[in-house]
């Protein structure tokens, strides 16, 4: 769950029905084949054989004395390996890249289920460091699994992709007028140009479909007929795509923070405004009760008025926060970044950040608090350029985005009238408006997966409507609802005994709950 893992967070009955009919037609066609044709197909050479049967060399995960992730993996007993995959699956004999894995092996070998492959979201987020905390969340069930973290292609310890951006994020607010919108358009076009310049040779292969193909190579290289899967946020979409492209190769599937595949794409932030407004209101109420600590106002309305003062001040003149300058395009993104976790620690970090910004709006010299400094470093420097580069390359490579800026300008104006704060963010253009068309069409996701879906009702990234839509289409699925929490990612993250126990029971038995489960949020 990384940054806009969301958005990573970023209308489907028709496409799902086509997928089901297509699978049925394929099955009927196969049964009609003559025996000789079936035998010939069975004997056909596997073009990916050298990848499927490669030998994996497991080694220490520690890259050096300052490798915090490697130390955590070592302490948890994990080992790491690199898997070779083709850059272009249409040319398996051509250029290759590597995908990095970490693995904590099952200790209860007598009751071993198999590998549980993880994806923590993004797209562009690292997952190689996740097995220790996921293994802990699984409690005793974890002893029966090989818990496997995979940095997807071009991410983290895998073969890299970096467009050399001056930012870690493609997302910006549109500003208050057409001049501001045009500035963002120019900024976005420059980001796209940098990607063509520095990574043009690999951009066409940075897609979810290729990551799913990599997952299946990993499955085969591990020597497994099937894998179980736990995907958060964007990882839910990756799981949907993998199970569609490779039916019959998954065992137990958990999707936490569920994306409706028909809403996924370069504009996946559209529709999340109301959930973010609800989360902002909840945070404002919490902050108002602690006015002596944060000084943002004694009532929810007063806190929200402080937020609006910050946004208005940034629109007039960029706010000075240490070495950073926060303008009308970045200020609402800071706000957006503060809304994903529903707990006192995250609320406090966000409140301190807004207090810093309010002081800057009042003309004071401000050194940003640690949370705010991290957000501004991410947004306003190139320190996380690889993250933003990969995230955007995948979003743009997965689905087509309109190339006419006027489409976005109309949407921004319409959305601003309803929500002046989040509308110009969630409906704005980004670099995908200046990207080449995708090489492949989006996956038409299947509708018959027996998966366990998990979502909070107030999730500001992968909104609850996405989970209910997928559940309605997947009649064989079950939905675990965390009611009353503005929380992105639940299992092992939020601390719901009810939700965690339900997921672990499914992972232990392979049996979905008899009915959907609703869990209550923590009392404040």
From TrEMBL:
PROSITE patterns listed in its UniProt record: TAT
SUPFAM superfamilies listed in its UniProt record: alpha/beta-Hydrolases
Domain of life, source organism: Bacteria
Keyword Hydrolase attributed: yes
Signal peptide: 1-39
Domain Peptidase S33 tripeptidyl aminopeptidase-like C-terminal residue range list: 420-519
One Pfam family in the UniProt entry: Abhydrolase_4
Keywords carried by this UniProt record: Hydrolase, Signal
Coiled-coil positions: none
Family as reported in the entry's similarity comment: Belongs to the peptidase S33 family.
UniProt protein name: Pimeloyl-ACP methyl ester carboxylesterase
Organism in which the protein naturally occurs: Streptomyces griseochromogenes
């Amino acid at each position: 769950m990384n940054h806009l893992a969301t958005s990573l967070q970023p209308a489907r009955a028709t496409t799902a029905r086509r997928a089901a009919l297509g699978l049925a037609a394929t099955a009927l066609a196969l049964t009609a084949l003559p025996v000789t044709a079936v035998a010939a197909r069975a004997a056909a050479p596997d073009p990916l054989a050298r990848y499927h049967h490669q030998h994996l060399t497991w080694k220490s995960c520690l890259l050096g004395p300052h490798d915090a992730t490697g130390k955590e993996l070592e302490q948890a007993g994990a080992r790491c390996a690199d898997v070779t995959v083709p850059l272009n699956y249409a040319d398996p004999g051509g250029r290759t890249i590597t995908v990095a894995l970490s693995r904590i092996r099952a200790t209860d070998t007598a009751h071993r289920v198999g590998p549980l492959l993880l994806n923590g979201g993004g797209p562009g987020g690292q997952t190689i460091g996740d097995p220790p905390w996921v293994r802990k969340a699984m409690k005793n069930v974890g002893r029966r699994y090989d818990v496997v973290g995979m940095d997807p292609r071009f991410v983290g310890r895998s073969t890299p992709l970096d467009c050399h951006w001056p930012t870690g994020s493609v997302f910006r607010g549109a500003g208050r007028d057409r001049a501001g919108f045009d500035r963002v358009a120019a900024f976005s076009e420059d980001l796209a140009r940098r990607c063509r310049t520095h990574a043009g040779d690999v951009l066409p292969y940075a897609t979810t479909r290729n990551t799913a193909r990599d997952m299946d190579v990993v499955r085969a290289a591990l020597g497994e007929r099937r894998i179980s899967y736990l995907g958060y946020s964007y990882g839910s979409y990756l799981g949907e795509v993998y199970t569609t492209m490779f039916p019959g190769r998954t065992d137990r599937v958990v999707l936490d923070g569920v994306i409706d595949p028909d809403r996924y794409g370069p504009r996946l932030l559209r529709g999340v405004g109301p959930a973010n407004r609800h989360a902002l209101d909840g945070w404002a109420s919490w902050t108002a009760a602690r006015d002596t600590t944060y000084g943002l106002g004694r009532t929810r309305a007063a806190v929200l008025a402080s937020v609006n003062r910050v946004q208005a001040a940034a629109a007039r003149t960029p706010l000075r926060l240490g070495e950073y300058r926060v303008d009308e395009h970045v200020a609402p993104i800071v706000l957006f970044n503060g809304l994903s976790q529903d707990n006192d620690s995250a609320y406090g970090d966000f409140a301190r950040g807004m207090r810093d910004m309010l002081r800057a709006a009042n003309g004071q010299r401000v050194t940003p608090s640690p949370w705010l400094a991290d957000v501004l470093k991410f947004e306003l420097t190139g320190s996380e350029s690889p993250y933003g580069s990969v995230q955007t390359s995948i979003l743009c490579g997965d689905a087509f985005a309109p190339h006419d800026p006027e489409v976005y300008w109309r949407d921004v104006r319409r959305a601003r009238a309803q929500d002046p704060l989040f509308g110009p963010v969630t409906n704005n253009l980004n670099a995908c408006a200046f990207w080449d068309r995708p090489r492949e069409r989006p996956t038409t996701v299947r509708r018959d997966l027996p998966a366990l879906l998990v979502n909070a009702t107030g999730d500001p990234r992968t909104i609850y409507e996405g989970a209910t839509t997928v559940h309605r289409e997947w009649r064989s699925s079950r939905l675990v609802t965390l009611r009353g929490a503005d929380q992105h990612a639940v299992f092992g993250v939020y601390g719901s005994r009810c939700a965690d126990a339900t997921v672990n029971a499914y992972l232990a038995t392979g049996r979905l709950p008899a009915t959907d489960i609703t869990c209550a949020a923590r009392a404040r």
